[in-house]
């Protein structure tokens, strides 16, 4: 897959394996998941992992998958709710498999979806599932500091900015 020199690979393995933290009560907790927070190598290691996910989803006319840091966003264009359900089910299934490969897990509680209106009001909000648990539909979605709403109006975003 990647041609990494042996010594560099050994260095990264030692960096990522057999790690531990000392908890407030003085006990030691060992872990081997994720990338150490605040490390100088952390961002590049995460980019390598995240890039594996993005390569699974080449841009198509009805879908776009993007990432910024550890936030992913999936945009789906569908003319009907059932099509939206079908496409999202396939994409989420791929994401679950990718996450499992890297011993990661998405938060069902933080994962939300919003449906943007095309011409008429949306009357049916499909059940979208992550790890078998239904994820919530929302009328406001904050991504990269911008609040999106179903009407593309940005009024909620402007009101929140004005309140600050």
From TrEMBL:
GO biological process, one term: DNA biosynthetic process
Domain Reverse transcriptase as annotated: residue spans: 1-130
Alphabetical list of InterPro entries matching this protein: DNA/RNA_pol_sf (IPR043502), RT_dom (IPR000477)
Pfam families with a match to the protein in the record: RVT_1 (PF00078)
SUPFAM superfamilies named among the record's database cross-references: DNA/RNA polymerases (SSF56672)
Protein name: Reverse transcriptase domain-containing protein
Source organism per UniProt: Araneus ventricosus (Orbweaver spider)
């Amino acid at each position: 897959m990647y041609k990494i020199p042996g010594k560099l690979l050994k260095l990264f393995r030692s960096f990522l394996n057999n790690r531990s933290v000392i908890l407030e009560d003085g006990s030691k907790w060992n872990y081997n998941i994720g990338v150490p927070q605040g490390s100088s190598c952390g961002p590049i290691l995460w980019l390598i992992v995240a890039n594996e996910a993005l390569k699974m989803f080449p841009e198509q006319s009805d879908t776009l998958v993007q990432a910024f840091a550890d936030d992913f966003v999936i945009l789906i264009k569908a003319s009907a709710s059932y099509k939206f359900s079908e496409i999202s089910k396939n994409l989420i299934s791929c994401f679950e498999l990718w996450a499992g490969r890297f011993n990661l897990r998405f938060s069902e509680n933080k994962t939300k979806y919003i449906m943007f209106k095309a011409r008429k009001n949306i009357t049916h909000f499909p059940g979208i599932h992550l790890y078998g648990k239904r994820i919530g539909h929302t009328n406001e979605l904050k991504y990269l500091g911008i609040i999106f709403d179903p009407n593309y109006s940005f009024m909620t975003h402007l009101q929140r900015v004005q309140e600050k």
